[in-house]
Structures are given as C-alpha cells and as structure tokens.
Amino acid sequence: MSANDHHKHVGKPAAIMTRVVFTLIALALPLCSALSKRIAPPTVTPLIHEGVRYVAPTDDGRRGYIEAWDIDANKRLWELTVFTNRIDPKLEEDVQWVFIKSLSLRDGMLMVTSERGKTYQVDLKTKTVTQFDAAQSAAPDAAAQGHEIPQAVARAITNGSLSKQYDLSFRMNPFYLRGDFNGDGNTDVAFLVQHRSTRKIGIAIVHGATDKVIILGAGVAIGNGGDDFEWMDSWRVLSKDSAAREGGKTNAPDFRGDALFVEKSEAASALIYWNGKRYVWSQQGD
After folding, report:
1. C-beta separation of 151 from 187 below 8 A
2. Residue boundaries of the structural domains of the chain
3. What pLDDT was estimated at residue 110?
4. CB-CB contact of 264 with 208 (8 Å)
C-alpha cells in the first residue's frame, strides 16, 4: 500500500467521526435549550378576606408580588413586592425566576409561600413584609390549608353574591369537608364562612353538579343551631348509612345522602342533612 493510499484509508474514519460528532452536537443543542427553560409558573388560588381579593400575578419572573383588589368595585387597591430574585447575567434568566406558590391567611396576616418553600408574612394594614420562620409556630393552624382550597370553594367565594357578603373562616381544622350531601352521586363541599358585616359564623355547601351554594348559619337560621354557629367546635361527615343509624335515635326520615355531624363538645350535637328540598336540622343531644 502506497503512502498516499494509507492516508486515504486513515482519513475516511476520521472524517466519519467528525461528521458524527457534529451531528450529535446539532441534536444536543435543542435538547439543552429545552432543558434550560423553566416549567410554567404555579397557578395560585386567589384569597378573599374582608371584601378584598388577593392575587399573585406571574408576569414578572424577577420578583414575587401580590395585588389587592376591591371585590365590589373590581378595582385594584394596591400592589406589593414580597421578594425579588437575583439574576446572574451569565445564566439563562428564566431558569432563575421564582414565583409565588400559595397564599393563605393566619391570624390576620397574609402568608405568602414561594416555589423554594420560603414563607413571607405580610401585614395587611401596614403592608410590611417579613420572612416567616416556621419554628415560630409549633403546628400550622387551619389557615395553612389556604393553598389547598378546593376549586368549587374557590369559585364560590370568588364569584357571585357569596363573595360580596362572606369570607372563608379558618376557625376550625378542617375548615371544609367533602361528601355527597344531596345524594345525587356528585361530590359536594361544605366549608366554614363568616358574614362580613355581622361576623356571624356558618356553613356554606356547594353542590358539585350545579355549583349552587346554600348558606346555613352566618345569618340564616336553621333548627336549634340558630343563625350563628360560633358555638360549634367540631364537625365531621357521616356517611348515609351512619347518618341513618344516628338519626334513627330521633326518628329522622330516610337520608338521601351524607350528613354533617356538628357539635359543641360535651354539650350538644346535631345532624344536618338534605331532605330532598332543603337542609334540615336533627337534634342529637343537649
């Protein structure tokens, strides 16, 4: 084999390897670009408190901020930056963005949690922001469920007449319960509310099939429970069969669905159930 033939023989594999390397690089570039893009920001459920809706927009990745909107006037009241994100110009910017993950209410303070798990406390009166130390609270109260509000509850408390008169109440844990209360085969949600002007406590029930909201207490009287459920310190769902067994003690009619068992510890209790037309009260003990 001549020297010239030898160089040709050696050069072919080298040329092939070069083409393979460039091909792999070309294929890897789009993948690297895709990996450098962050996922979509989380959807944050608005929080309603005393006639004001608090939202966390996701249109500015360099900061986490909230807006306060007057519900009746649908007017923005103010805007507040809760935290900022330091951007390294040497890196892809969007992968450095950090957004707000959830909003909740605790002791009258707005609690803002970021995607990185940091929690900030916002004083709604002074608009002062402080980073919240989880060690300050040995156990989270019901308000910590703020970011776990069911969609049916979020829709009910944000839209329609309910948003104009009532606020969510976090006075008990849990502050909402699920069940098929009207027996139509769909999941309904019962949650605690407080009338904005009278401050009376009650229960709102959202029927899953229609999103219809029914108020019990909070200014609307029902049975011996009256129109203010401030006395209630415990509640739970009883299945249709369990409710029938409990209700049998007081000769209650057949239950169409699950029932709410409400009580004042060591004092009185009752069942609230759907009779086909409305929710009624069945006293269990006093």
Report:
1. no
2. 1-35, 47-143, 149-285
3. 93
4. no
| CA angle (261 as vertex; 253, 143 as ends), nearest 5 | 150
The CATH code of domain 47-143 reads 2.40.10.480
Cβ neighbours around 119 below 10 Å, total: 17
H helices of the chain, in order, are 3-35, 151-158, 162-165, 240-247
Are the beta carbons of 228 and 220 closer than 8 angstroms?
A: no
Rounded CA separation 199/193 (Å): 9
Residue that has been written with the tokens 């608005």 in this structure:
46
Tokens of 22: 């460039």
Instruction: Determine phi and psi for 175, rounding to 5 degrees.
Output: -95, -5
Instruction: Please tell me the distance from the alpha carbon of residue 53 to that of residue 49, in angstroms, as a whole number.
Output: 7
Q: What does pTM read for this prediction? A: 0.51
Task: Please list the rounded mean pLDDT of every run of 10 residues in the chain (286 residues).
Answer: 51 58 51 57 91 93 92 92 84 88 88 89 86 46 50 75 81 89 92 91 93 94 94 89 61 75 87 92 81
